[in-house]
Write a structure and sequence with these properties.
By secondary structure, the protein is of the alpha/beta class. It is built from 13 helices and 19 strands. The protein has 3 domains: 126 residues, Rossmann fold, CATH 3.40.50; 227 residues, Alpha-Beta Horseshoe (pyruvate-formate lyase- activating enzyme), CATH 3.80.30; 61 residues, OB fold (Dihydrolipoamide Acetyltransferase, E2P) (Beta Barrel). The protein has a 6-stranded parallel sheet with strand order 2-1-3-4-5-6, sandwiched between helices. β3, α2 and β4 form a beta-alpha-beta unit.
């Protein structure tokens, strides 16, 4: 192991992709610290650089490769440095990366990331062989609450991954091939991790999985998302529970009724619908219809006060006609969803959709994506303007990176990292607490606000113009 001037080896980690990948990175950091490493934000100071990659779609792969090459420049200046690539790219292309990226010392897949400290040690102390090591066995691993972990989100908020893999077979998606089939963690283990995080000062838990609503469906013990939530709402000190990424076909009436009456559970759901044309949904392999999607949205809005809905849609799927696209555009304009991301279909080798005929021209994909995002921007800006003058609960996170005079916060309608920021400009804020704030200005996707009381607020979600 390379010893730095401080006699403590230093590691710099870059994590790309989704929040589920971020949790893996946090476990790696925790394991490294436990094994004597020090985390550094300086690439040039590091004795090892770890790039935790995403391999979902073409743009994510390009970002991953670009980052690896960027980090390799630091290795040129410091040949003793180890450059390691982990995550989905390592798993998906485990047979190809070693020859394609000779700059990398070794690769680690999605089931072996917790072993990273040992691999760093063994590869540093063993002479380099002719072949770059690749540690990417399929073991169907999932982390647990006993592993050390560094929460890199904020001191007040954390992700908790309740399951790994996916039970669905969407034609465009490579995730089951990379991450495996659905594997749900036992409720008692999830709760133990939540209690540990709350003990560290976390007030907001963001539950994540490839499909959170499918939690427990791989087991025969009766545990499901509803029973998990019933356990978590009892955790003392936990203020907010946010649920991210739930397929609409798995959202039941019983679930909706339960969350409507639970003040700790935020009225916020991320429901990826992908499209609004039944013919496209069928070709995608989605187990739902536009009628079912609209029914779920209607029930949520009717039963859950202040319901905030985020979704993702895809344009340019093979065979998508102009009529199909117009149905999607009409849906977006009619539903006026609170947050929406639109992606152009990426033809991914190894998926069913990649072999389909009628692939759509890239220019058409981008034109359709731009139209959807323009329509959504108009919706969001109008919604956000209607919130000026209203009070909301907000988690007070930290001093803003932009100015020492601003405090970064998020109201209950804003999920971490994806939904914008609320900047606090006045009042007696309390870092790490949930307080009521008055929205004074809408700034695109962000807000300016001021604290209107000094105490930690009770959850009281305001409604917003639809």
């Amino acid at each position: 192991m390379q010893i730095s001037e401080s006699n403590i080896p230093k590691v710099h980690l870059v994590s790309l992709g989704c929040s589920r990948n971020k949790v893996d990175a946090e476990v790696m950091l925790g394991s490294l610290i436990e094994n004597g490493w020090e985390v550094t934000q300086s690439e040039s100071e590091a004795d090892a650089i770890v790039v935790n990659t995403c391999g979902f779609i073409e743009s994510a792969k390009e970002e991953s490769v670009d980052t690896i090459l960027e980090m390799s420049e630091h290795k040129k200046q410091k040949p003793s440095m180890q450059l390691v690539v982990t995550g989905c790219l390592s798993q998906r292309y485990k047979g190809q990366l070693a020859s394609a990226l000779p700059e990398v010392d070794f690769f680690v897949g999605v089931d072996e990331f917790a072993k990273l400290p040992g691999y760093l040690h063994s590869n540093k102390n063993e002479p380099a062989g002719e072949k770059t090591p690749v540690y990417a066995k399929r073991t169907h691993y999932i982390y647990d609450e006993h592993l050390p972990r560094v929460n890199t989100l904020t001191k007040t908020s954390a992700y908790v991954k309740v399951a790994e893999g996916c039970e669905h077979n969407c034609a465009f998606c490579i995730i089951p091939a990379i991450r495996g089939r659905l594997r749900s963690r036992p409720i008692q283990k999830v709760r133990a991790e939540v209690e540990k995080l709350v003990g560290q000062g976390v007030v907001e838990i963001n539950l994540i999985a490839q499909d959170l609503a499918a939690y427990g469906r791989d087991k025969d013990d009766g545990e499901d998302l509803l029973s998990l939530l019933k356990s978590l709402v009892q955790v003392e000190g936990l203020r907010w529970i946010r649920m991210l990424y739930m397929y609409p076909e798995n959202i039941s009436d019983e679930f909706i009724d339960f969350i409507a009456g639970q003040p700790k559970i935020l009225p916020y759901l991320d429901i990826p619908i992908q499209h609004a044309s039944n013919s496209v949904l069928e070709r995608m392999g989605r187990d739902t219809s536009i009628e079912q999607i609209e029914s779920v949205l209607q029930k949520l809005r009717a039963k859950v006060p202040g319901m905030t809905i985020r979704t993702t849609v895809m344009v340019g799927f093979p065979g998508e006609t102009e009529e199909d696209f117009q149905k999607l555009e009409a849906f977006v304009k009619a539903q006026k969803l609170d947050h929406l991301g639109c992606f152009a279909y990426s033809q991914e080798a190894g998926t069913q959709a990649a072999r389909m005929v009628e692939q759509i021209d890239e220019d058409i994909k981008q034109r359709r994506r731009d139209q959807i995002m323009q329509a959504q921007q108009e919706i969001v800006f109008k919604k956000n303007q209607s919130m000026v003058g209203q009070t909301f609960d907000a988690v007070i996170e930290k001093v803003s990176d932009e100015s020492d005079l601003l405090i970064q916060a998020r109201i209950s309608r804003q999920a971490p990292e994806v939904d914008g920021i609320t900047y606090i400009q006045g009042g007696n804020y309390r870092l790490g607490q949930i307080q009521k704030v008055l929205i004074s200005e809408s700034i695109g996707y962000d807000f300016a606000a001021e604290v209107v009381d000094e105490s930690a607020a009770e959850t009281n979600i305001e409604t917003v113009e639809n």
